[in-house]
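Input record, target 12 of the design panel.
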């Protein structure tokens, strides 16, 4: 089948041609997160949004499921099936499984299985080490990329949120993901100062599991802990108290048991995690140059990432810093949307890429 385009005709403009050709681009942007991985395909937008999880048959080494299907198996698998989360605290903990996961998501993004030479842009935490960078690059190349760029997630989150990062004015962004929290001050398309703490959403889930185990002698799974965090978790007292019925296993009797928990209990469980994030914000504010501090006083602090949705976290930060605080319109997708914008301008990408 052949298609002829006549440039200059009223039907086909240069802009329309570029838009059409972009559909055939194989370039991808990936927000490789501890909890979730999102893939942006040039010309099509976000094409994959799945949990970072892989179910593997430990007898044969074969992949049984990837993403949502694998996460749904958590706590429900037979002995020969293991659900693995290959990323821990924002970096690769299992190279082989990460490669399997990337291959699956890339194939899903392209809707085909044939090998394709593609450029891939990966978002990583701002404070990762050279060894951690190399691990991400190597895994991506093994997933059949032709060229790999690493970009810092807080910068991409700021771009995805629509902040004017190229201006000579300070923007402060707090990106709370699944495994890490990035606090960064951005000006003139660069990160002036940043602080990475390896405490974020997954640590909050773990804190809830431990609290119920110690205080109620109730064993729950990761998925239940995440649901508790979303439904009644908070960083400061709520206007209207919330409760939730939680079902788990009684550690004393060994039988199923249901209890009712209150939001104040979960707030207590999350106290250490929230305090760690608050301390990181304070350190960055203290070390920010005075001129940029004045800008932040005017513009405030921008929250993004899944952790930004914790109830009253914005209020807690506002009360303790005295600064305006806002949550982006799409905190879960800001990083991958920012990476997607970089796919349109590889000249700029090469300037801001860290590897």
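The sequence produced for target 12 reads:
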């Amino acid at each position: 089948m052949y298609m002829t385009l006549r440039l200059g005709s009223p039907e086909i403009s240069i802009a329309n041609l570029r838009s059409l050709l972009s559909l055939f681009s194989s370039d991808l942007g990936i927000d490789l997160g501890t909890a979730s991985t999102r893939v942006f395909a040039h010309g099509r937008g976000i094409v994959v949004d799945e949990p970072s999880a892989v179910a593997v048959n430990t007898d044969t080494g074969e992949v049984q499921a990837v993403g949502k299907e694998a996460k749904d198996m958590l706590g429900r698998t037979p002995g020969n099936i293991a659900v693995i989360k290959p990323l821990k605290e924002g970096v690769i903990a299992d190279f082989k499984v990460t490669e399997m996961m990337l291959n699956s998501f890339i194939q899903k993004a392209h809707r085909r299985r044939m090998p394709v030479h593609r450029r891939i842009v990966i978002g990583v935490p701002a404070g990762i080490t050279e060894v951690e960078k190399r691990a991400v690059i190597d895994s991506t190349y093994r997933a059949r990329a032709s060229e790999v760029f690493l970009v810092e997630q807080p910068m991409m989150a700021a771009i995805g949120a629509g902040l004017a990062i190229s201006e000579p004015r300070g923007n402060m962004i707090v990106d709370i993901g699944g495994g890490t929290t990035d606090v960064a001050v951005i000006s003139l398309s660069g990160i002036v100062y940043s602080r990475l703490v390896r405490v974020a959403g997954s640590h909050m889930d773990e804190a809830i599991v431990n609290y119920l185990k110690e205080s109620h002698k109730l064993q729950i799974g990761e998925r239940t802990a995440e649901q508790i965090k979303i439904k009644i978790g908070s960083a400061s007292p709520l206007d209207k108290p919330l409760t939730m019925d939680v079902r788990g296993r009684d550690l004393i009797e060994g039988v199923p048991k249901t209890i009712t928990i209150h939001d104040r209990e979960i707030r207590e469980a999350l106290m250490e995690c929230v305090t760690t994030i608050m301390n990181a914000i304070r350190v960055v504010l203290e070390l920010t140059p005075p001129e940029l501090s004045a800008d932040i006083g005017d513009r405030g602090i921008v929250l993004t990432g899944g952790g930004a949705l914790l109830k009253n976290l914005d209020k807690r930060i506002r009360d303790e810093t005295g600064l305006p605080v806002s949550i982006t319109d799409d905190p879960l997708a800001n990083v991958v949307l920012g990476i997607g914008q970089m796919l349109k301008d590889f000249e700029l990408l090469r300037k801001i890429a860290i590897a």
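The radius of gyration is 22 Å.
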